[in-house]
C-alpha cells in the first residue's frame, strides 16, 4: 500500500484530527488549499503524488497567484506530505526518505515566502497589482450607492427570473463589502436566512451565520441583523451581531430578498436546502471561490477594478485608519465586525501608502 492514493476527504479529516480546536473557517481554508493543489497542477486530486509536488515543476505553476495564495497552497502541500508520511509503513524506507526530503524542500520555500510576505507587509506599500486595482474608498462607496439607487429606480426587465436574481445577488454581494465594513468571505459563505426576532439569536445553532429578518420591528434600521458565529477568529472574538443601518443596504436587501424568495422559496420542511442567503442559479450555496470571482466581476463592471476581499479590506482600512477622529471604541467595534481583535500595530499593516500611484483612470459604469 506504499503507493496508495488519497482523496480530499481523507486529508481534511486528518487536518481536523491533528487540529481539533480550530474554527470551521480554518478547516474550510485548508480544504481550499488542498483543492488548489489539484487546480494548479491541472489534475484530479486523487492523482497527486511526489512528481506533482516537485518544487521545480510546481512553483512556476503558481506564478500567477498572489504571494498569500502561494503560501496557503504550500501549507496544503505540507499537509499532504505529512499525511503521506503518516501512512507509509516503516519498511518503506526509500519512500520515507523521499518524502522527508520533499518536505524539507517545501519547508525552505515556505520560510522564504513568509519572509517575503513580512517584508511586503512591513513596507505598507502597494504591489503593482494593488496599484492597478486601487480605488479610494470614498469613490468606491459613492459609485456603489449610485449604482444601487439607479437599479432600484428601474423596473426589472421581463424574462428569466434567474437572470434577474443574479443581477440583484451580485449587487448585494458587492454592497456587503462596500456599504459595510468588509469582513471575510467565509462570514457570508453558506449564510442562512432567518425570519426571527433578534432576541431569539441565542436559540440559533452556533455552527452557522445568519441574516436575521424582523419585518415586524417598528424601526427600519432593526429590520436586518447580521449574526456571525463561524469565522476565522470566532474562538477569540465570539459571536457578533450587528444591525444593518445603512439606508441603501436596507433598500437593496428588500429587493434582493424578494427576488431570492421567488427563485427559491424558503420551506420550513426543507429548511437546510432552501434557506441559504447567497445561492447560484442551481439553488446551491455560493462557494468561496465563486464569491471571489463574483466580487471581481461585479466591481469591474461598476468601477473598472477587479477587487478581491483582501483589496476591499485594504481599501476600507486605509480610509478608516486615516481618520484620526475615530476613537478607540469606534476602532474596536469596527475591528470586531470584520473579525479581529483590535491591535493598532496589526491593523496598520492593512493601511496602504498611496504614494507613487499611477493617475486614476477608472470609469464609472452604471449600465
Q: Keyphrases for this structure?
A:
367 residues, mainly alpha, four-stranded mixed beta sheet, globular
Task: Provide an overview of this structure.
The structure is a single chain. The protein contains 15 helices and four strands. It has helices at residues 8-18, 24-41, 55-61, 67-87, 93-123, 128-132, 137-152, 161-176, 234-237, 247-263, 271-274, 288-303, 309-321, 328-337, 344-348, and strands at residues 192-194, 210-213, 224-228, 240-243. A four-stranded mixed beta sheet has the order 1-2-3-4, with no helix packed on it. α8 (161-176) packs antiparallel against α10 (247-263). The protein starts with 7 loop residues before the first helix and ends in a 19-residue tail after the last helix. Residues 355-367 have low confidence and may be disordered.
Amino acid at each position: 500500500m506504499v503507493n496508495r492514493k488519497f482523496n480530499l476527504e481523507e486529508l481534511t479529516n486528518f487536518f481536523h484530527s491533528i487540529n481539533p480546536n480550530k474554527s470551521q473557517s480554518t478547516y474550510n481554508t485548508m480544504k481550499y488549499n488542498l483543492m488548489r493543489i489539484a487546480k494548479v497542477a491541472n489534475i484530479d486530486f486523487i492523482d497527486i503524488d511526489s512528481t506533482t509536488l516537485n518544487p521545480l515543476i510546481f512553483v512556476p505553476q503558481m506564478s500567477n497567484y498572489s504571494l498569500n495564495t502561494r503560501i496557503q497552497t504550500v501549507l496544503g502541500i505540507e499537509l499532504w506530505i505529512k499525511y503521506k508520511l503518516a501512512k507509509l509503513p516503516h519498511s518503506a524506507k526509500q519512500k520515507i526518505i523521499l518524502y522527508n526530503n520533499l518536505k524539507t524542500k517545501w519547508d525552505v520555500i515556505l520560510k522564504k515566502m513568509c519572509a517575503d510576505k513580512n517584508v511586503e507587509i512591513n513596507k505598507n506599500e502597494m504591489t503593482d497589482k494593488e496599484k492597478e486595482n486601487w480605488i479610494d474608498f470614498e469613490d468606491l462607496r459613492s459609485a456603489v450607492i449610485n449604482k444601487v439607487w439607479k437599479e432600484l429606480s428601474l423596473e426589472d426587465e421581463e424574462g428569466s427570473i434567474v437572470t434577474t436574481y443574479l443581477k440583484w445577488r451580485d449587487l448585494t454581494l458587492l454592497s456587503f463589502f462596500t456599504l459595510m465594513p468588509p469582513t471575510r468571505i467565509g462570514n457570508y459563505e453558506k449564510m442562512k436566512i432567518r425570519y426571527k426576532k433578534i432576541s431569539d439569536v441565542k436559540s440559533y445553532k452556533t455552527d452557522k451565520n445568519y441574516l436575521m429578518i424582523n419585518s415586524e420591528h417598528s424601526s427600519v434600521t432593526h429590520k436586518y441583523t447580521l449574526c456571525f458565529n463561524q469565522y476565522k477568529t470566532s474562538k477569540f472574538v465570539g459571536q457578533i451581531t450587528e444591525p444593518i443601518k445603512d439606508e441603501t443596504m436596507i433598500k437593496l436587501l428588500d429587493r434582493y430578498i424578494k427576488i431570492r424568495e421567488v427563485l427559491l422559496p424558503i420551506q420550513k420542511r426543507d429548511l437546510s436546502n432552501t434557506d441559504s442567503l447567497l445561492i447560484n442559479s442551481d439553488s446551491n450555496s455560493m462557494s468561496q471561490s465563486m464569491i471571489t470571482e463574483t466580487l471581481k466581476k461585479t466591481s469591474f463592471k461598476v468601477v473598472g477594478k477587479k477587487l478581491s476581499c483582501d483589496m476591499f479590506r485594504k481599501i476600507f482600512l486605509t480610509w478608516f485608519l486615516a481618520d484620526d477622529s475615530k476613537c478607540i471604541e469606534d476602532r474596536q467595534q469596527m475591528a470586531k465586525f470584520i473579525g479581529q481583535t483590535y491591535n493598532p500595530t496589526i491593523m496598520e499593516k492593512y493601511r496602504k501608502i498611496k504614494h507613487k500611484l499611477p493617475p486614476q483612470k477608472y470609469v464609472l459604469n452604471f449600465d
